[in-house]
């Protein structure tokens, strides 16, 4: 016999605690790997989801004398 409501609640709490421990984690390593766009002038890296607009903004703000395509050659089509 046994296994009253108190025992069931305790085991459910323990199960939920284990699930929460496994779910937590840092995103930092994944973000470092995703930094694959690089400015060729200053070597600053950007995350792979960076838009063309942000690349152009960087080039105009940081390297006004350089061409956008010299900073980011992948933008040439």
TrEMBL record:
Residues 1-28 are annotated as: Disordered. Gene3D superfamilies: At2g23090-like. It holds the Pfam family zf-met2. Residues 11-21 have a biased composition (Basic and acidic residues). It comes from the Eukaryota. Residues 3-36 form the Small EDRK-rich factor-like N-terminal domain. Residues 38-75 form the At2g23090-like zinc-binding domain. PANTHER family: OS07G0114300 PROTEIN (PTHR33788), ZINC-BINDING PROTEIN (PTHR33788:SF1). This is SERF family protein.
